[in-house]
Every structure is written in C-alpha cells, then in structure tokens.
Amino acid sequence: MVRKSQVKDGRSAAMEPWLIFTSMDDFKPRQVMKLYSRRMQIEQNFRDEKSERFGFGLRASYSQGAGRLFVLSLLATLSSIVLWLIGFHAENKGIHLSYQANSIKSRRVISHLTLAENVLRHSPANII
Fold it and tell me: What is the reported pTM?
C-alpha cells in the first residue's frame, strides 16, 4: 500500500490521501505513483478521443473497421499534439491567466489542451 504522504512530490491540492494497492514489491512508492499517474493520463487520452462532449467524438463515427479506427485514432493523436503545443505556447505568453476561473498563478489550473481549445475558440489571433 502506498500513501500519498510517502511520496514527496504528491499533489498537495488533494484533500484525501491516495490509497493505491499493488502486488509489485520491487517498486518504490514513488515508482508506483508514477505508473498510476501515467495510467490515469492514458485513460484520459482515450476519453478525449472517444467522447463527443469532451473530445474528438470517435464514438459518433460508428466506424468498425480496424484500418479506419487506426486512421481516426492517429488523427486524434496528431490533433492532441498540435493542441498541446498551442496550449503550451499560450501559457508561455501568459494568455492562460485570462481563462482561469481563479487567481492561482503558481501552478497550472487548466490543461494545455483546454487552454488551446479556449484560445482557438475565443481569440485565435492571440496565438501568433
């Protein structure tokens, strides 16, 4: 069992400790947390690809062929990379502060993808 307090760089914003159970005795708590964090990112990426509300809406394509699903997934991945780069650039320019609902400036509050989506929707000229 790994507790958040055992990992120095655990997210301080979380109110409750993470209780992660594992049978991998040869991994240190920090390694288990990194693996779990990576797993959460992968699941989030799948949600972004499939969801009509939060992502690219691959569910709505009703595609069943492996080749077509591969191409759609590749396009979604490439789009995610471009959006991430736009969001990263917007954050470096300080544009992210006008899209936050709070005044926290010490850490990222919205993801690069969400920031890119907002900037492209509301003020695409700010990216240049």
Answer: 0.65
